[in-house]
Amino acid sequence: MVTSPPVPTYQLYGETRHWPTPDLLHCETIAERSRLYAWHIRPHRHADLMHLLLLREGQVELQLGDLEAAIDTPAMICVPATVIHGFRFSPQTQGHIVTLAQPLVARLRERLPQAEVLDAATHYPLAAQAEAAPLAQLIALLDSEYRRAPGGTQEDREAMLTTLIEAVTLQLWRRARRRQRLPRAGQERGERHLERYRQLIETHFADQPSIPELAAELGIGDAHLNALCRRLTGHSALQLLHARLLLEAKRQLTYTQQSIAQIGERLGFTEPTYFTRFFKRGTGMTPRAFRQRSDARG
């Protein structure tokens, strides 16, 4: 019997390295990354990231879960976390891909009931420019704001990014409602456990709870929690918790003036050396070196 190779779990759109930015979203054109891979992004999935793709011109052969289809443009594609997906773009494809980190998706769900649309793995044909134009304008503004270097106006910048992605979500929800493509009502039990686990991480990560404690909150054993996390995301329960801690550490080092010791304490590390060791293991550099690099870029 021939065994199919496992589907890889990536950190960002074809890469295994960590989330490259302290922001909760990443925005780039289709061409910026796809041409590096000869316009072919092989099937993969993400543990804690989701994609929104706006395609204005060109064509794409899409694999999205069980769906395989050739998609004409303009179109919008929604790829929730853990869903297997791959793309083969025509070289003339024009558009953007916006990647959202799980904490931002959770925030959108809290603020907007319409954010349920982000749970649907599907694509939405857009009626030529009449439907594409508002989305294209919003994402162009988001791309411009995203590319601004971090600086003293970071709070304004983050507020603007959040406002724009909320507007994109609402536009997407309108199109989903017209086509009756809202998310499925049911989820398998493992997916529900994973969603609740992510919510617990978001609430308690700075307390650094143990995995058995979090599993008990879910009413399951820690071995069961680890098994479903690995099955659905490719990562252990502890790796998902540590990824959220690492993301928050990057954000605090980039966007605050707190000392490294203060940041470590806020994130539950009893000694600065423990925080430094954790951060270096996850990024390959010390917190001080990461902050200096961020300051140089800004």
Provide an overview of this structure.
By secondary structure, this protein is an alpha+beta fold. The chain has 2 domains: 18-178, Regulatory protein AraC (Jelly Rolls), CATH 2.60.120; 189-297, Arc Repressor Mutant, subunit A (Orthogonal Bundle), CATH 1.10.10. The chain has 11 helices and 10 strands. The protein has helices spanning 30-34, 102-111, 128-146, 154-178, 189-204, 211-218, 222-233, 237-255, 260-266, 272-283, 287-297, and strands at residues 9-10, 25-29, 40-46, 49-57, 59-64, 67-72, 75-79, 85-89, 94-101, 122-125. A 5-stranded mixed β-sheet has the order 1-3-8-5-6, with no helix packed on it. Strands 2-9-4-7-10 form a 5-stranded antiparallel β-sheet. Strand 5 (59-64) and strand 6 (67-72) form a beta hairpin. Helix 5 crosses helix 7 (222-233). The radius of gyration is 19 Å and the shape is globular. The termini are far apart. The model is unreliable at 13-17 (pLDDT under 50).
Question: In the CATH hierarchy, what is the architecture of the largest domain at level 2?
Answer: Sandwich
Number of helices: 11
How are the strands of the largest sheet arranged? 1-3-8-5-6
What is the overall shape?
Answer: globular
User: Separation of termini?
Assistant: 54 Å
Give me the count of strands.
10
Percent helix: 40-55%
Uncertain runs: 13-17
Structural class: alpha+beta
Order of helices and strands: EEHEEEEEEEHEHHHHHHHHH
Radius of gyration: 19 Å
Protein name: Helix-turn-helix domain-containing protein
Domain HTH araC/xylS-type: 195-293
Keywords: DNA-binding, Transcription, Transcription regulation
InterPro entries: Cupin_HpaA-like_N, Homeodomain-like_sf, HTH_AraC, RmlC-like_jellyroll, RmlC_Cupin_sf, Tscrpt_reg_AraC-type_HTH
